[in-house]
Amino acid sequence: IYSIKLAEDMSEFEEKAVEETPEEDTSLANSDVTTKYQEAAKIANATMLEVMAMCVPDARVLDICVAGDAAIMEKTSLIFRSKKGAKVEKGVAFPVCLSVNNCVCHYSPLASDESTVLALGDLVKLDLGVHVDGYIAVAAHTFRVTATGGQLAALEEGQESVTGPAADVMNAAYTAAEVAARMIKPGNTNKQVAEAVKSVAEAFGVTTMAGTVMHQMKRFVIDASKVIILRDDSDKKVDTCTFEAGEVYAVDVCFTTGEGKPREENARTTLFKRNVDKSYSLRMKASRAFFSEVQKSAPTMPFTLRTVEDERQAKLGVRECVQHELLTPYPVLFERPDTVVAHVKFTVLLLPSGTAKVTGVELPAGMYVSDADKVVSEELQALLAEEMGSKKKKKNKKKKAASEKA
User: Fold this and answer.
1) Residue 342: pLDDT band by 50, 70, 90 thresholds?
2) Distance of alpha carbon 117 from alpha carbon 140, whole angstroms
3) What single DSSP character describes residue 269?
4) Which residues pair with 140 in a beta bridge?
5) Which of 15, 55, 319, 357 has its CA 20 to 30 A from that of 377?
6) How many alpha carbons lie under 13 Å from residue 144 in its C-beta half-sphere?
7) pTM
8) What is residue 362's predicted lDDT score, i.e. its pLDDT?
9) CA-to-CA distance for 36 and 40, rounded, in angstroms?
10) Where in 4-89 does DSSP place strands (E)?
11) CB 151 within 8 A of CB 143
């Protein structure tokens, strides 16, 4: 869940990047670029499963977030090792966050914070991102803490399905995300996607979380200027944009059984992103030292204060940096305690063969059951029945034709 302001701030940076490197093709038309996106996606998916397995009763969220980020760094270190030439940058594109129950997003505590401890049955929103050479893959998934960790592929014998509003919000979020992924294709617009997602929320009787925005992603840019805003009650207005072949998007849906107006509480903000188009002469020594470290370790990607060696200095320095807009904060947001929140995110590539979903975790079959009258329109049902991408179908047709000739 990212703010529109981030996209606005990045537009100038994108233009400069294009001007400075006109000879480099960073779109999906370049097969090397596609490979890097796919490798980042593989690591994101693998890390999602590993982190989910760590989510057991009495586990500390802090420990899991640290282990998750470490897993991303270890996995990315094993690919694209540079023997000659320039070093390939790779690693965390969005720090591991575990937002529990009515906590909506961005919870990734520091060592000095009093970390949340997981309990059996807690509803967890896992969010993370990976990049390879600046090509980003993001993912988010909502799941319940089990005694053994991880997530079942399907409902087991003797288990009862989740029903009622808790089931509706989960089914709605994952249905809306699948609809959006199929609608993000060349020729369609952001307005069409927003309307389709809205109709899914209405069909299931749930509410879209304010501030939920889907972003285009580019090399080293996690929140590019093309966006899809899912609630039209925002004071920020988004221009209509048309999707084009070769683009990459983060499909991001967050639904709630509540009113959908998240608020900050007492949890410390630990995630930030450098605003590359802003400059200011910092006055405090701690601020200058902190920002210098950020420029070296996280010049374009979101980061956690845990990555800064001196946590005390980071806490002091980050205030002045945010005050003068050198950094954009990702605050920890909460819904009301009696609500159920579902968050799902995955990365889609607009390839020549069709839109490909390369990250994400599916809901366990039969786990969440909504009433029979809570269904989307026939038009959206037909859309959901379509397979994403058509490359395999074309290959099969060619093989069939060849066999017939033989």
Assistant:
1) very high
2) 20
3) P
4) 127, 345
5) 357
6) 17
7) 0.90
8) 94
9) 6
10) none
11) yes
User: What is the H or E stretch that residue 138 is in?
Assistant: strand 135-144
The burial of 402, by beta-carbon neighbours within 10 Å (0-12 exposed, 13-18 middle, 19 or more buried), is given as exposed
Tens of pLDDT, residue by residue over 123-147, are 999 999 999 999 999 999 999 999 9
- What are the structure tokens assigned to 150, written together? 């991880």
On whether the CB atoms of residues 332 and 268 are closer than 8 A, the answer is: yes
pLDDT given at position 23: 72
- For 239-268, b/e burial (b = at least 16 CB within 10 A) is eeeebeebbbbbbbbbbbbbebebeeeebe
- Tokens representing residue 226 in the block: 């093309």
Residue whose pair of structure tokens reads 């007492």 in the numeric block: 266
Query: By three-state DSSP, how is residue 255 classified?
Result: strand
Residue 406: CB atoms within 10 A of its CB come to 5
- Spatial contact of 96 and 126, defined as CB atoms under 8 Å apart: yes
Phi, psi dihedrals of residue 130, rounded to the nearest 5°: -130, 145
Is residue 395 predicted with pLDDT exceeding 50?
Answer: no
Tokens of 147: 């005694």
pLDDT digit string (tens) for 49-85? 999 999 999 999 999 999 999 999 999 999 998 766 6
DSSP string, 50-63: HHHHH--TT-BHHH
Q: What is the C-alpha end-to-end distance of the chain, expressed in Å?
A: 54
